[in-house]
Amino acid sequence: MDTIASLFSFITTPVSWVIVQFHSVYGEIFGPDTGWAWGLSIVSLVILIRICLIPLFVKQIKATRAMQTLQPEMKKIQERYKNDKQRQSEEMMKLYKESGTNPLSSCLPILAQSPFFFALYHVLNGIATGKTIGVIDDQLLASARKAHIFGAPLAAKFTDSADKVAQLGASLTDVRVVTAIMIVLMSASQFYTQRQLMTKNVDTTVKTPFMQQQKMLMYVFPVMFAVFGINFPVGVLVYWLTTNVWTMGQQMYVIHNNPTPGSKAQAAYLERLTKHVTHHGKTRSRGERAIVKAIVAKGRDRNEFERKFINSLTKVGLAAAADGTVAKSEVAVVETEDGTPVTGAAPKRQQPKRQSKSQRQSQSGTAKGADETEPKTSLSKSDEPEDAKPSPAKPAGGGNKPGAGTRSKAQSGQRKGPQRPKSPSKK
Q1: Are 209 and 89 in contact (CB under 8 A)?
Q2: Which of 105, 111, 291, 329 is deepest in the core (most CB within 10 A)?
Q3: Alpha-carbon distance 133 to 11, whole Å?
């Protein structure tokens, strides 16, 4: 333990100095020996560290966005080598190397704050064992050993014996109840943070090995915190719970205002943005203009949510410009499902639906029935007697010529229309 503490001595002294400075401020308000003074000092240390890590967090976001631009190429690799997982992984790593992206960039904030975590652990472990460490002298050590957070000493652990807890001026029940609650909250916050990332802020159209690793870590990390948390002092649990809550809130802000393209969070964000832009007729903030600018720059590479956003603006007479602004437009430009813009698009003429043979026969039967109900033509046989009918006038010259005069009646079994005259019989 002393060897490990000596390895982190370069960071242990600064961490202990920061805690002492915060303690001097909160000690004036709550008292130097109270758990509020020491507990808030640890919380303030976490906030200070996370503020210093904001540039690294921004770099992590940019790296994640760079990974999103590779999604179409990843999808092609998956389809090409869907039966060869090893070759698929090799091509994925080759793509990461050529594009200069790192799928492990999401772990950078955790790796960066790990030295501070170990330094704080050794500071609190020195308080528990009664050893001075860093800038914490004997007077501050005695004050820290008296500090209790909800009845649990700052340096107590879940696995401590009753005698050791009694030396710190507390009961074993109080220590285990407080530490158990903090461990549960710490694991739950870690699980919710990871689950929120996987369910809302991930492009689900492409599945990569990295996504599978993240899904596995969503269940592994909470279990690890629950197992190792019983060996953490109460002060370290305060530190880790605070940093988990900070991470959760920071991630919620990013998902709400700058979601990953193709994710459910982007669909919800663009729906809100559509309502705001159509109501005000313009983009109101720099962040909104940046989102619209990125969507316009994609062109045909837009996903379905982004095309829906552009088409929604078109329907109300608005158009998104290349600089991210939105202005009124008189020309309607609608994008199809494949991203092809169509100016003044009119509804396509639909071809008549092809009917089956049974449908055509049923329609022909209906038409035949309708014909039977119509009045008979002059070619059909009349029910009136022949005597009642006026005889047609014969042409001058007396004789009947073939094809002249009245048209012969249609006989049954003969075709309708004028009949060919029969040749005169020879006597």
Answers
A1: yes
A2: 291
A3: 12
CA dist 319 and 229 (Å) reads: 54
Smallest Cα–Cα separation from 266: which of 339, 193, 338, 200?
Answer: 200
pTM score, whole prediction: 0.66
pLDDT digits (tens, 9 = 90+) for 7-54: 667 788 888 899 999 999 999 999 888 889 999 999 998 899 889 888
- 165/169 Cα distance (integer angstroms): 7
| 110 SS3 class | helix
C-alpha closest to that of 135 among 15, 299, 278: 15
- In angstroms, how far is CA 25 from the centroid of its own chain? 44
Is 149 buried (19+), middle (13-18) or exposed (0-12) by CB count in 10 A?
A: buried
- Closest listed residue to residue 190, CA positions, set 154, 217, 167: 217
SS3 419: coil
CA distance 280 to 277: 5
